Automatic annotation (TrEMBL):
EC number annotated for this UniProt entry: 5.6.2.3
Helicase ATP-binding domain ranges (all copies): 1-265
Any one GO molecular-function label of the UniProt entry: nucleic acid binding
SUPFAM superfamilies noted in UniProt: P-loop containing nucleoside triphosphate hydrolases (SSF52540)
Protein keywords: ATP-binding, Helicase, Hydrolase, Nucleotide-binding
Protein name stated in the entry: ATP-dependent helicase DinG
Record-stated family: Belongs to the helicase family. DinG subfamily.
SMART domains: HELICc2 (SM00491)
The protein's enzyme class: isomerase
Organism: Nocardioides iriomotensis
Lineage of origin: Bacteria, Bacillati, Actinomycetota, Actinomycetes, Propionibacteriales
GO biological process, one term: nucleobase-containing compound metabolic process
Pfam families: DEAD, Helicase_C_2
Signal peptide: none
Length: 644
């Protein structure tokens, strides 16, 4: 892997590397990245991997190789979005209320927790700490918003009186002086695709957890509009403008609320007249209100009004979002979601129909990209993932071995060819695990196909039988919260001697701790457990998957993408729904074998994996475990394993 990454950096060809759990893939890309003469960006999907790279992998590597590095020890830095850092202006001056007036901390328990976070931020400022959310005391999202700002609320380095101490600005400065920058997919998308300069200049990017990239880029490019948000922006703006523009925006918000009530929930292929008219009202009112704010002096001179700056930022964001929604171009998908009033009420959403075009034209055309993950080959091939990130299967460069690195680096690049094509290579470096000996993949072929009426009696019987044979030690991955709760209730009733933990009964870290501590515990949950849980050893010897995790048929974005693929002459079901399911299945099945000593069973309770035409594609995306549909064989294996 390291040789292939070095070759890609030298030749300018893109690279996809599937590297299973336990291969040490972070070292596989960090070694050539640290040896590269220019800056390299490493982008991850999760904060946990960022933390692992910065706190463990890079320091260990540099410490071990210090005497071998020709130009001294390379520098590295972590860079996150602004809202991930405490804001010293907000800490010291307070949070704006609905009128834009800076107020002190709230009373009660929340107030005391805010004071703790403020004290921590001041201590970080004094000691030169990072001031980021990961190093903060335990807190909720609501508490963190009391000590942080997003990009639209930030006063800017030229106008903030605390700019010299600013954690976010210091992180940017450190990144500008570093040869390796560790960041996240969302910040990478904002920098490369939206064109907002967030990351210092670089020519090579390594994208770890690359199976998450399209989802994270889509998320970063998704905007939402709610009426309470418009009302708050209008109230905050009233004291800063002389005319009626703030009232006009509030009135436009009322019109939008009425339009939401008349609009059906779900994807909107065309905007209803009332909704289209209301969006235009909001857009025009927001534009007028932005213009009504007093002009701020250029160059940072004069007194800064934080309440005014932040109120104007809110209105600008509303203008940008409403303008995008009102335009309703073919490349966007718009939908309405119903929410309870306490959760902000109805929300209108807009997201890009696809992101591969932007990734190709704005990232791949400018940078050399290395994509790596434990799950990049779906259906046994790189084609599905390559297509989703902007690489064409026809552009793949085939070879059976990695050529000599020096020769590869010296191959002259033909500029015209690069303009037309984005050559890429695919490499599967395998796994240190002996999957056929360590794991069994069991498909319960005898069960009825899952329906819409919830989990049937036969499926519940199957779950209880498998869990009983394993004597607990089960991670249950379910397609819905309702299914997880039904399974937990059934197992608790029929196997009362076992400990059954269900997602939602406590925070995930607490549930994971209890799961590890009790050798006869089961943990049942939904999507966050499919990808975010790492419990090696005897804790988990059975992974239950209740059904193939296809996206919901009424999912606005997925259904729009599937229809677009059909319209373009492809197979929308395979390109979107089956690919989505294959990726999640591979991630879920990957929870079982985490070390070379782990053993167990992945039980999929959906017979379509072996009976449907698309089942082969899904099965070929899973680790190559020994496969069976014989229930008795599996029960015997689990009982024997439980006794060892």
């Amino acid at each position: 892997m390291a040789e292939a990454v070095a070759r890609a950096i030298g030749s300018g060809e893109h690279l996809l590397v599937q590297a299973g759990t336990g291969t040490g893939k972070s070292l596989g890309y960090l070694v050539p990245a640290l040896l590269h003469d220019e800056r390299v960006v490493v982008a991850t999907a999760t904060l946990a991997l960022q933390h692992q790279l910065v706190e463990r992998d890079i320091p260990a590597l540099l410490g071990a190789a210090e005497h071998l590095l020709p130009g001294g020890t390379p520098s590295y830095a972590v860079l996150k979005g602004r809202s991930n850092y405490a804001c010293l202006h907000r800490v010291r001056e307070g949070v704006p209320d609905d009128q834009g007036v800076l107020v002190d901390v709230p009373e009660g328990t929340m107030g005391s927790e805010v004071l703790k976070l403020r004290a921590w931020a001041e201590q970080q400022a004094e000691t030169g700490g990072p001031g980021d959310r990961d190093s903060a005391p335990k807190h909720t999202d609501k508490l963190w918003r009391q000590v942080s700002v997003n990009h639209r609320e930030c006063l800017g380095a030229t106008r903030c009186p605390f700019a010299q101490e600013c954690f976010a600005e210091r992180a940017k400065e450190k990144a500008a002086q570093s040869s390796v920058i560790v960041t996240n997919h969302s910040l990478l998308a904002i920098d490369a695709i939206e064109g907002v300069p967030m990351i210092p200049e670089y020519d090579v990017v390594v994208i770890d957890e690359a199976h998450e990239l399209t989802a994270r880029v889509t998320q970063a490019a998704t905007d939402e509009l709610t009426v309470p948000e418009i009302e708050r922006a209008a109230r905050r703006s009233q004291k800063h403008v002389d005319g009626t523009e703030a009232d006009d925006l509030a009135d436009a918000g009322d019109a939008l609320r009425a339009a939401y009530e008349e609009t059906d929930e779900g994807r909107l292929d065309t905007l209803p007249t009332a909704l289209a008219d209301a969006l235009v009202l909001v857009r025009d009112a927001a534009r007028a209100l932005v213009s009504a704010f007093p002009k701020e002096q250029q160059g940072g001179g004069g007194e800064v009004d934080p309440g005014r700056t932040q109120a104007r930022g809110w209105v600008q964001e509303i203008f940008k979002t409403s303008e995008r929604m009102a335009a309703h171009v073919e490349s966007d998908v718009v939908w309405l979601s119903r929410r309870e009033r306490q959760r902000g009420g109805d929300v209108l959403c807009v997201a890009p129909l696809q992101v591969w075009g932007q990734l190709r034209s704005k990232l791949l055309a400018e940078k050399t990209a290395i994509f790596t993950s434990a799950t990049l080959m779906l259906g046994g091939d790189f084609a599905s993932v390559a297509t989703s990130i902007g690489l064409k299967p026809s552009e793949r460069v085939e070879d059976t071995e990695v050529p000599d690195l020096v020769e590869a680096a010296e191959v002259p690049e033909v500029e015209e060819e690069r303009d037309r094509r984005e050559p890429w290579r695919g490499l599967d470096v395998g796994s240190p695990f002996d999957y056929p000996r360590q794991g069994i993949l069991y498909v319960a072929r005898h069960l009825p196909p899952p329906g819409r009426d919830g989990m049937g009696a036969a499926t519940l019987d199957e779950i209880v039988g498998l869990v009983d044979a394993a004597e607990g030690r089960t991670l249950g991955l379910f397609s819905s919260r309702r299914a997880a709760e039904a399974a937990a209730a059934a197992v608790r009733e029929r196997l009362p001697h076992l400990t059954i933990l269900a997602q939602g009964e406590a925070q995930l870290p607490e549930l994971a701790r209890l799961f590890v501590e009790d050798p006869h515990a089961c943990l049942f949950g939904t999507l966050s457990l499919w990808q975010g849980l790492d419990v090696p050893g005897d804790t988990c010897q059975l992974v239950l998957i209740d059904r193939i995790p296809f996206p919901r048929p009424d999912d606005p974005l997925m259904s729009a993408r599937q229809r677009a693929a059909d319209k373009a002459g492809g197979n929308g079901f395979m390109a979107v729904a089956a690919t989505h399911a294959a990726l999640l299945l591979a991630q879920g099945a990957g929870r079982l074998i985490r070390t070379t000593a782990d053993k167990g069973v992945v039980a999929i309770l959906d017979p379509r994996l072996v009976t449907a035409r698309y089942g082969r594609f899904l099965a070929d995306s899973l680790p190559p475990m020994w496969r069976t549909t014989d229930r008795d064989v599996v029960l015997t294996a689990l009982k024997r394993l439980a006794q060892t």
